[in-house]
Amino acid sequence: MKFFIDTANLNDIAEAQALGVLDGVTTNPSLMAKEGITGAENILAHYQKICDLVEGDVSAEVISTDFEGMVKEGEALAALHPQIVVKLPLIADGIKACKYFSDKGIRTNVTLVFSVGQALLAAKAGATYVSPFIGRLDDISTDGLNLISEIRLIYDNYGFETEILAASVRHTMHIIDCAKLGSDVMTGPLSAIKGLLRHPLTDSGLAKFLEDYKKGNQ
Ligand code: E4P
């Protein structure tokens, strides 16, 4: 399973990259705003900085909600850097734009996916990635992980090449569960990724190894 980090924070991206397990980055307009990145030029410059920091795919989301606007924005984003993947919302014009970009060989991430029907449409339109938001489904007492397994089943039934990118991952167990269910990618915060490191037996075992080494090497 590929690991993407879901942030526009350059320090977090650099820390995950330094760990050596990062395969890409996802952003969205809220995450950019959280970092205080505003204005078209600054936003493009920030995407460039992210691409300079990491080697993998960087999802950059369009703001337009009409086909023409999405195509214009998406083409400008894709031209910025070969690592950019154009992120499109799952609405009718987003699906049309996805098909347009797919026919042109421009990679896409269809976002704001909350049902298997939406995921089926994104795959039919040739999306590179589909982003089901598991955390936001959990927030409304719906089983987010179940959506991942249903999409997996349908994509496998028909051999769709669209990769399932489990999004809105909130914590470490989400990552483990997504891996069990065969998600191709997960995107989550640095804290969820770093949570995978932790085990008290690792800490106590290491402390004992170091203590015993010291005793024998004084
Ligand atoms: C996906 O690409 C989104 O950026 C993201 O995962 C949304 O997560 P949230 O529900 O924690 O805002």
Automatic annotation (TrEMBL):
Signal peptide segment: none
Keyword entries, A-Z: Cytoplasm, Pentose shunt, Schiff base, Transferase
Active site per database record: 87 (schiff-base intermediate with substrate)
A UniProt-annotated Pfam family: TAL_FSA
EC code: 2.2.1.2
SUPFAM superfamilies: Aldolase
Location within or outside the cell: Cytoplasm
Catalysed reactions, as listed in the record: D-sedoheptulose 7-phosphate + D-glyceraldehyde 3-phosphate = D-erythrose 4-phosphate + beta-D-fructose 6-phosphate
Biological pathway: Carbohydrate degradation; pentose phosphate pathway; D-glyceraldehyde 3-phosphate and beta-D-fructose 6-phosphate from D-ribose 5-phosphate and D-xylulose 5-phosphate (non-oxidative stage): step 2/3
Homology family: Belongs to the transaldolase family. Type 3B subfamily.
Protein function: Transaldolase is important for the balance of metabolites in the pentose-phosphate pathway.
Protein name: Probable transaldolase
Native source organism of the sequence: Thalassobellus suaedae
This protein's encoding gene: fsa
